[in-house]
Amino acid sequence: MKLAKAALLLTLAPAAAWAQVNVGQQKPEASLPFTMTTVTTFELPWRLAFLPDGRMLITEKVGPVWLVSQQGQKIPVGNTPPVYWQGQDGMLGVFVSPHYATDQSIYLTYVEPGDYGGGLALARAKLTATATSARLGNFAVLWRQMPRGKGGQAGAQIAFSPDGQYLFLAVGDRQRMTPAQDPDQPVGKILRLTLDGKPAPGNPNFGKTGAATIPLIDPPSDTEAAKTAKVVSTYTLPGPNLTPAETWASGVRTPYGLAFSPTGELWEVEHGPRGGDELNLIEKGKNYGWPLVSYGLNYNGVPIAKPDTRPDLAEPVLYWAPVIAPGNLMFYRGAETFPQWNGNGFVSGLATMTLNRIVFDGHGGAKTAERWDVGKRIRDVEEGPDGSLWMLEDANPGALIHVTPKAITSR
Question: Burial level of 182, CB count in 10 A (0-12/13-18/19+)?
C-alpha cells in the first residue's frame, strides 16, 4: 500500500509542479528551426481542416469556405450559410467528421444572422468535392445559441472525443461576462454533444430541462463591450432547447482553442481581459472562474480577484500576462517530419505574432518550451498529412503559410 501511494504521488508530481505558471514574459528564440513559405492569401482567414485527399478546407470570416490544394489552387464551396459578420463574428470553424470515410460530413461553426445581431450555430453537411467543384448537401443546423445578440468572442471551436462518438463545442461569453456563470445560458461554456448536436449522456446535468428568462445585453461595440452594457429586453428559453444538460464545464471567456492530447486529455486556451490568457485542462463539471476570477484586469481598470483566492474554481495550468492572444491549440503527431515535437502542443499567438510550443506530461501538467517570432498574427496552425505545419495569418489579405524543416547545409 505504501509503495502504491508513493507511486501515485510521483505520478501526480509533475502536474502540481507545473501548475499556475505565468509564461507571459517569455522571450522569443533567436532563430527559427523551420522555413515559412506563403502559398496563397485569403480575406480574414479563420480555420483550416485537412481532408483525406490532402486538400484543405479554409474559412474566411467574411463568409466563404474554400477547398484549397497544397499548391494554393482555390475552389469555392457552394451552399454555405449566410453569416453575421462583425468584429470577431462571422464564418469561423470548419471540422472534418471523425467518420468522414463513410459519411463525407463536415461541421461548420459560424455566427448566424438574426434579430438584434447573431448567435453561434453548429451545422453539419455532406461535402461533395471533385477536381473542379465543391458543394455542401444535406445542410442542417444541429445547435443554436439563443438568444442571439451582439458581441464577439463566440469561441466556436470543436474537439471530437477520441472514440469519435461525441463532440465538444467551445462557446465564448460573447462579451456578456456574467452569463458565463449562469447554468441556464450556454455562453461561456464547454458543451458536450452527440454528433447530431444533442446533449450527450453522461454530462453533469444530463436529463434536466427547464426554461429560463435571459436578459438581452446591448454592448455599444466590440472594443467597448466589456466596459458598459445595458439590458434592452428579455428572452425566455423554449424549454429543453437550451438547458444545463449540454454543459460539460463552465466559466470560460474566449475559448479559441480546444483539443484532445495524445493521452486523451481535453485542453483549452482562451483570451483573458487585460492580461491573463489561459491554458486549462478541461474536466467534467468544473468551473473555470470567468468573470469571477482572472489573472488579468477588467478593461475599465477594475481589478478582478485572482484564481488562487477561490479554491472552489479550477485554476489555469499556464497563463500569459502580458497576453499572447491565442488563436488556437493543436497537438502534433507527425513523428517523421519534426520528430522532436511528437506529442507536443502548439498555441498560435495573435498579439505576439508567435508560434508557441507546449510540452504536456500526460497527467494534467504542461510547461512552455520555445516561443518563435514568426512576424505575423497567427490565427490557426494545423498539421498536414506529411507532418509539416500549415498556418493562417489573421489579416486581410491573410497568408496561408507552409512550415517545413529548415534544410541542413553541409560544409
Answer: middle
Ramachandran region, residue 202 (left: φ > 0; alpha: ψ -120 to 50; beta: rest): left
d(CA 139, CA 108): 10
Nearest residue to 126 via CA among 107, 141, 142: 107
Which cell numbers in the block locate residue 264?
486523451
Distant-in-sequence, close-in-space partners of 119: CB < 8 Å, separation ≥ 6: 111, 112, 144, 145, 146, 147, 148, 149
Q: What is the DSSP-derived secondary structure letter of residue 131?
A: S
**Cα 239 to the chain's mean position, in Å?**
28
Query: Nine-digit cell at 56?
Result: 484543405
Whether the CB-CB separation of 274 and 239 falls below 8 Å is answered with no
Q: Which three cell numbers stand for residue 191?
A: 458543451
pTM of the model: 0.88
Q: How many CB atoms lie within 10 A of CB 230?
A: 10
Residue 239 binned pLDDT confidence (cut-offs 50, 70, 90): very low
Q: Which ranges of 104-199 does DSSP label H, i.e. alpha helix?
A: none
Note the pLDDT tens digit of each residue in 9-27: 333 344 444 457 999 999 9
Q: Are strands 56-60 and 65-68 parallel, antiparallel or unpaired?
A: antiparallel
First and final CA of the chain: distance in angstroms?
59
pLDDT band at residue 64, thresholds of 50, 70 and 90?
A: very high
Separate counts of helices (H) and strands (E) for the chain = 2, 27
In this structure, what C-alpha cell is assigned to residue 380? Answer: 490557426
Residue ranges with strand state E in 218-306: 231-236, 247-250, 255-260, 266-270, 277-282
* 131 band by pLDDT with thresholds 50, 70 and 90: very high
Cis peptide before 255 (omega within 30 of 0): no
Q: How far apart are CA 252 and CA 259, in angstroms?
A: 15
DSSP result, 192-204: EEETTSSBPTTST
Task: Give, in order, the Cα–Cα distances in Å from 307 to each of 18, 73, 87, 280, 324.
Answer: 16, 47, 29, 12, 19
User: What pLDDT, in 10s, does the model give residues 114-129?
Assistant: 878 899 999 999 999 9
Reduce the DSSP state of residue 409 to 3 states and report it. coil
* Burial (CB count <10 Å: 0-12, 13-18, 19+), residue 211: middle
